[in-house]
Amino acid sequence: MDHKGVFARKPVADIIASEGGAFKALPKVLGPFSIVAMGVGAIIGAGIFVLTGTAAALYAGPALTISFVLAAVACGLVGLCYAELSTLLPVQGSTYTYTYATLGELAAWMIGWDLILEYSMGVGAVACGWSAYFNSLLVQMGLGLPPDLLSATGERIVRADGSAGTAIADVPAAVIVLVITGLLIGGTRESVKLNNAMVVVKLVVVLAFVLIGAAHVNTANWQPYIPPNTGEFGQFGISGVLRGASIVFFAYIGFDAVSNCAQEARQPQRDMPIGILGSLALSTVLYIAVAAVLTGLVPYPKLNVADPVVEGARAIGLPWLSLLIEVGALLGLTTVILVLLYGQSRIFATIANDGLLPPVFARIHPRFGTPWISQLIIGIGVAIVAATMPIDTLSELVGAGTLFAFVLVCIAVIYLRRAEPNTPRPFRTPWVPWLPLGGILACLGLLAGLGVYTWVRVGLWIAVGLVIYFAYGRFQSRLRAK
């Protein structure tokens, strides 16, 4: 195999001319409101309802608000790059397609493989949070599930009678993934309508918590604002703020999932920038507000629980608000699962359509107009992940995968400005190359905040991806066959 084959690029003109090729059968049903709702549906979820507590209690303390600002700055820089590429190449595949047009086939495969990790672990982490809120709601009705069925396989648990044991699997997490998978197979239009309704309810719940909670904040809980470092990197202090930013960065991955909507958008050149940047801006404001109110209501060491926002509502002393938040959290986390499963299936199908995975994964259902086999296989795989892996491991893996993808998106903008200067760009990222370079540096800084074991796991995933490519993908590539 020669280097030209490994680094063969898919020409931008060919990508634009094909307008999705095999995916022309996908119906164009998404307008700007639906795309913003898809973004908010993916972003406002685990970051508010699950990770705020973990990141504040273990890493950043009240300075979690700074962590959210740092993550938002990095996402804003990258979001502008996504906006340009999603209008330049309004087709399926997101970062995978952009990388294929810039750095070549091997890099595209690796980022596609990386995105599979990102979305799978992302859905798994969110499903774990969904399970905790679901059981909390059941407990209020006297129907709580046994702890054996509520934690990752092998995790230590304490049963109601005080006896210790190990969990079998997180059953509700697996069930919700399979239910959403069935919904997505049934059609994009129906899934979007449900997502829009749930997003509206979710925003009402989040705003209710912020407005009511702000009146009950105890400012003493914000002291010290940046807790002193414990002597270990990432545990409070400045390094803890950075580590917290790396963790809550997971909360922002929804806006890059929006780029997978391009093939089904009615007017992608107009609607995609609105969807990406609008959802990112709205979600950032809400994240910072919730983090400030939550750490003002509850001392940060007490927030390392599965349902931290409900803990904040309990501190206010309004039972009806706790119930409202639990319902809103369930809906919010459901929309995140829906959007991430949607995005992953589209990337999976695009990779298969290029020949780097078996073509069966690109097959479109003749009635529902969805990549149903891809969606089904992903749903089953992610359900197993959600049932067996702990949420902290899942969230760090998502952060690493997302940051790698974002770095390549910034590189793609710089490269295509030089390689394809005359190609029409309905949306142009300002201050190229300086703004994309800022995005690259911000992402690399957040990568530095991840733990050693996360790097080991990501390295193993990359090694498996290389084996698959050199054993299968390089021989089946449609681009190289031409």
Description:
It is found in: Membrane. It comes from Reyranella soli. This is Amino acid transporter. It is a multi-pass membrane protein. Helix 5 packs across helix 17. The chain has one domain: Amino acid/polyamine transporter I. 68% of the residues lie in helices and 1% in strands. With 482 residues, it is mainly alpha-helical. The chain is built from 19 helices and 2 strands.
Give the helix/strand layout.
Blueprint lengths: L2 H4 L5 H7 L13 H12 L2 H15 L3 H25 L6 H6 L4 H36 L15 E3 L5 E3 L4 H15 L2 H27 L22 H12 L5 H5 L9 H30 L10 H9 L2 H35 L18 H17 L2 H29 L14 H14 L4 H25 L1 H4 L1
Antiparallel strand pairs: 1-2
CATH superfamily: Amino acid/polyamine transporter I
* Helix-strand makeup class: mainly alpha
Total number of β-strand segments?
2
Helicity level, as a percent range? 55-70%
State mean pLDDT (0 to 100 scale). Answer: 83
Q: What is the highest CATH level, the class?
A: Mainly Alpha
Secondary-structure element string: HHHHHHHEEHHHHHHHHHHHH
CATH architecture: Up-down Bundle
Binned strand content: under 5%
Strand order, largest beta sheet: 1-2
Please indicate the count of domains.
1
Task: Compute the number of helices.
Answer: 19
Radius of gyration: 22 Å
Cα-to-Cα separation, first versus last residue: 15 Å
Q: What does the overall shape look like?
A: globular
For the largest beta-sheet, the strand count, sense and barrel status come to: 2 strands, antiparallel
Stretches with pLDDT under 50, minimum 5 residues: none
